[in-house]
Design a protein that fits this description.
By secondary structure, this protein is an all-beta fold. Helix content is about 0%, strand content about 55%. The radius of gyration is 13 Å and the shape is globular.
């Protein structure tokens, strides 16, 4: 059973930065992704990674960077130039490669961006 645990969320002012981490056990999978869900909205894919290939939602391109450290079994999401519309619960997931279809999910970590 794959287990995922996110950390690193918090409250920041607009323009600030946060780095989210996702610890995966027993080991990180090849295809991983970050998703978010804002109140009253559907969950959306933010970024995904397959080996060195990355894909981003248009809304975060140039501001967010997804990466993973296989040795540490950890997935990261570096978020810069944060905007109030980035406020959401952020989830990491193991995904079916090349898709936004999550197979295993973490519990989520809250990100709040204030003006």
């Amino acid at each position: 059973q794959v287990q995922l645990r996110e950390s690193g969320g918090g409250s920041v002012q607009a323009g600030g930065s946060l780095r989210l981490s996702c610890s995966v056990s027993p080991y990180i999978l090849s295809c991983m992704g970050w998703f978010r869900q804002a109140p009253g909205k559907e969950r959306e894919g933010v970024a995904r990674i397959y080996n060195d290939a990355t894909t981003y939602a248009d809304s975060v391109k140039g501001r967010f960077t997804i990466s993973k450290d296989n040795a540490k079994n950890t997935l990261y999401l570096e978020m810069n130039s944060l905007k109030p519309e980035d406020t959401a619960m952020y989830y990491c997931a193991a995904v079916s490669c090349g898709t936004w279809s999550g197979r295993y999910w973490g519990q989520g970590t809250q990100v709040t961006v204030s003006i």
